[in-house]
Amino acid sequence: MSTRAISGFRVTRAGPLALLQDSGRFGVRHLGVTQGGPADLHAWAWANRLTGNAWGTPVLEITFGGLELQAEGDLTIAVAGADLAARQNDKPLPLWRPVTLRQGERITFGTPSQGLRAYLAVAGGFAAEPVLGSVACVVREQLGGFDGQGRRLAEGDVLTIRADARTRPGTDEAPAAERPDYTAPVTLDLLPGAQIADFTGRSVFDAFNSDWQVDDRADRMGVRLTGPTLHCQTGSMVSEGISLGAVQVPPDGQPIVLLNDRQTIGGYPRLGNLTPLSASRLAQCQPGQTVRLRAVGAEHALREHRRFLAAFDPQPNARS
Amino acid sequence: MSVSLQLPRLEPAGIDGWMVRLFESIEEDNLLWLTALTRDCEAAFGQALIDLVPSYTTLLVVFDPLQISTWQARQSLVEVLAKLTPDEAGADEGELHELPTWYDPGVGPDLARVAERSAMTVDEVIDAHSRRDYRVFALGFSPGFAFMGLLDSRLHCPRLDTPRQKVPAGSVAMAGQQTAAYPAVTPGGWNLVGRTSARLFDRNREGFSLLKVGDRVRFVAVDQQTFEREGGDTAPAEAPSAEVTS
């Protein structure tokens, strides 16, 4: 290991799905290796900022809750994103702000009351050896995570943290405007593109003027939406590269929004792409929640995204 | 597909991507253009480049939206396309890989069915599959999984109705007009006809994936002894899941 690592936490209960995520794995998609990284970029970025970590520092992504950790030293952490009924010993753990832990204290996650994924950052950052340039944990590809083999956290795991990391002073608390109510009805921004001209006029109308329900067939690869049936004149296509947030429509007419662990190429026609922050927002929606789609222009969407990134000061092309 | 629209065509692919569409259908000569385009984009985008995903008829270009705008990226691509010339066709195009392959019903449980469907003997299927050099059209599905073609038309066969839950690493397979070898244990719906001892994806190897888009591949039939000596795993493949559960 290139940096000195010390023991930070012991996993006393693993829960269904807790994964280590940096900003993702880039520069290898032509080899069929997917992007990985946080399903909710917004909450992930805030967890790091609150603990004074640089952009890209590895964070735990905790889906559905159930995780229980014991601090192996005195630590500063921050949890942002979904409310998974987290507790520090016997009292509720405040979200979206830094929290000090003493050695031996326990952090437990219950079940989601709003959102699906919480992000736990530790000041200094979790330490793991990058695989193909990233520690992003992709179970399907057996890449990344603490052991490099893409394994989700398991009971008994010891989570290492960087002993020598330089951190900037953290932020006291995320402002209210940055703390979404994940249960609120949400409108997702979609950049039209790809095969949108091949959908029937009625289907394009329906896409942007209907309520869509988030299906329970949803994971880090993609989220299925149910609603009116969309028809495309293009049947099966030659497979082509798929970027984050792509909204593909298989023959059953029900869209699937492709997220971080999507396959790198695919052959279903697409309406376009959700913006990165809209894809992040969708990743926090529970099954049964209603979303709507709104067409936006590239210029507007790019400006929004740059404004978001500016608050976190990532270095250009230092996304992994 | 709207055939009236002119090619090449630039289609939006999110705030940080463009899809460059060069062709409508799969032809081997597409690769001459796609490999040239990939190289030119690397040069044109430099540090602002995040990822390039070539596939049969397209190249997906992903760039850093902090460094260049969606519009600037489009301008760069227009300039690259204006000057694009295909790589020269010739015998030396693409690196040639020989994949030692043990064709056997144990590791290729669909071999007999493919033969029966094609009205050929098993030996004829093996001969037809290993006789020609294939080109890598795309990588995807899983790390290092290379879609190769095109198969002898007599070997064209549909995917399995019910995919296997676990296809062993190294499995050599066919579906439609394409062939492939599975780099790792994954689910899969292609017809398994053999197994290669070649390591297709290795995180410790320079470049990680043995095969890249544009490479040429030759399956070389070997006997069990050679296969095992090369490190091949002889554990039999499971039957398609439909047969297991019935």
SSE blueprint:
The complex is a heterodimer of chains A (320) and B (246).
Chain A: E1 5-13, E2 17-21, H1 41-50, E3 59-63, E4 68-71, E5 75-83, E6 87-88, E7 91-92, E8 98-101, E9 106-108, E10 114-122, E11 158-162, E12 186-192, H2 201-209, E13 212-218, E14 222-226, E15 240-241, E16 246-248, E17 256-258, E18 265-266, E19 270-274, H3 276-282, E20 290-295, H4 298-310
Parallel strand pairs in A: 12-20
Antiparallel strand pairs in A: 1-4, 1-11, 2-3, 3-10, 4-9, 5-8, 5-10, 6-7, 6-9, 12-19, 13-14, 13-20, 14-17, 15-18, 16-17, 16-19
Chain B: E1 9-12, E2 17-21, H1 30-45, E3 49-54, E4 58-63, H2 70-83, E5 96-102, H3 111-117, H4 122-131, E6 134-139, E7 146-149, E8 164-167, E9 171-175, E10 178-181, E11 186-188, E12 191-196, E13 216-221, H5 224-229, H6 241-245
Parallel strand pairs in B: 5-13
Antiparallel strand pairs in B: 1-2, 2-4, 3-4, 5-12, 6-7, 6-13, 7-10, 8-11, 9-10, 9-12
Helix pairs in contact in B: 1-2
Notes on the protein architecture:
Chain A has helices at 41-50, 201-209, 276-282, 298-310, and strands at residues 5-13, 17-21, 59-63, 68-71, 75-83, 87-88, 91-92, 98-101, 106-108, 114-122, 158-162, 186-192, 212-218, 222-226, 240-241, 246-248, 256-258, 265-266, 270-274, 290-295. By secondary structure, chain A is of the alpha+beta class. In chain A, strands 12-19-16-17-14-13-20 form a 7-stranded mixed β-barrel. A 6-stranded antiparallel sheet of chain A has the order 7-6-9-4-1-11, with no helix packed on it. In chain A, a hairpin with a 7-residue loop joins strand 16 and strand 17. Chain A is globular and about 60 Å long. The two termini of chain A are 17 Å apart. In chain B, helix 1 packs across helix 2. Chain B folds into 2 domains: 9-83, Gyrase A, domain 2, CATH 3.30.1360; 96-245, Beta Barrel (Cyclophilin). Chain B has 246 residues and is of the alpha+beta class. Chain B contains 6 helices and 13 strands. In chain B, 44% of the residues are buried.
